[in-house]
Amino acid sequence: MIETISLREIYGILKNRIRLILTVTIVAMIITALVSYYLVTPIYQTSTQLLISQQRGEVVVDSQSIEADLQLVATYSEIIKSPVILEQVISQLGLEMSYEELQGKVNVEIAESSQLLNITVMDADPAVAVGIANKTAEIFEAEIIELMNVDNVSILSPAVVTESQAPVSPNPPLNILLSAIVGLLIGMAMAMILRYLDTTLRSEEDVQNVLGIPVLGAISPMNEEEDIPANEPIAFKRREA
Fold first, then answer.
1. What is the pTM (predicted TM-score) of this model?
2. Averaged pLDDT in 10-residue chunks for the chain of 241 residues
3. Burial annotation 188-222 (CB, 10 A radius, 16+ → b, else e)
4. Each residue's pLDDT tens digit, 50-59
5. Residue 44 in contact with residue 129, Cβ under 8 Å?
6. What are residue 192's phi and psi, to 5 degrees?
7. Where are the domains of the chain?
8. I need a labelling partner for 112 at 20 to 30 A (CA). Which of 5, 6, 66, 89 fits?
9. Which of 220, 44, 239 is nearest to 128 (CA)?
10. What is the per-residue pLDDT across 154-186, written as a single tens digit (0 to 9) for each?
11. Strand, helix or coil for residue 40
12. What superfamily would CATH give domain 44-157?
């Protein structure tokens, strides 16, 4: 038999367990704040922007040359993340990481319908991220002449270190907000579970629901300090129909 529950009963259960719900929520928020601020290593992000244009020395600009440059952009984005470029970055900067590790830190984004490439680097040290981004751009600018026999790459905007640069992850305020929501839901779920694990009959409605018979009367609350003689009858409160 499936037991139904009304919204009023749910409200009553949650109200009775409000301390539990708030405790779970607050604990979740505190743990998340401690982890976000003190245990998780902050990650910084920086970018260097490249311009892909006609070969230097050419002055004629037409739609076909621009279209050709746009097609090269996709090819260039793959070359930037290739071992030809990144292994030189590791060597020249003296990085203690493998090619695969560096490749995971470097992302190349193609600006939509433009001749711009953004080399984005993420690292725990903002200065290291800037160094990797700029060195990758410099090496690519030099190597593309030999690889593609073209000289059409220019560094438009190098990466720089700023004093007020904030990490991109973690995001403590967002994490704390999400943990508050999750903690609230967990607390409410625990309140409902504890209520249904509690078999105590607390009201006339509980007795009627469990036994399936109408309640004829209820014993009035008694003061523990009140001394009632053993031979004195106890008054019952008849339930009105």
1. 0.68
2. 72 92 97 95 95 63 61 86 96 95 94 84 95 96 90 91 88 96 97 84 67 68 59 56 49
3. beebeeebeeeeeeeeeeeeeeeeeeeeeeeeeee
4. 998 765 555 5
5. yes
6. -70, -40
7. 7-36+171-238, 44-157
8. 89
9. 44
10. 999 999 988 888 899 999 999 999 999 999 999
11. coil
12. EIF_2_alpha (3.30.70.1130)
Cα separation of 213 and 182, whole Å? Answer: 40
For residue 148, the cross-strand partners are none
By three-state DSSP, how is residue 168 classified?
A: coil
Distance CA 76, CA 115 (A): 11
**125 CB burial (10 A radius; 0-12, 13-18, 19+):** middle
Contact 105, 132 (CB under 8 A): yes
| pLDDT score for 1 | 44
Q: Where do the H-state alpha helices sit in the chain?
A: 7-16, 18-34, 63-80, 83-93, 99-105, 126-148, 172-197, 204-211
Torsion of CA 190, 191, 196, 198, to 10 degrees: 110
pLDDT of res. 162: 86
Q: What is the CA radius of gyration of the chain?
A: 35
Q: Report pLDDT digits (tens) over 112-124.
A: 767 889 999 999 9
> What tokens were used for 201?
């009959």
The tokens 């929501």 sit on which residue? 181
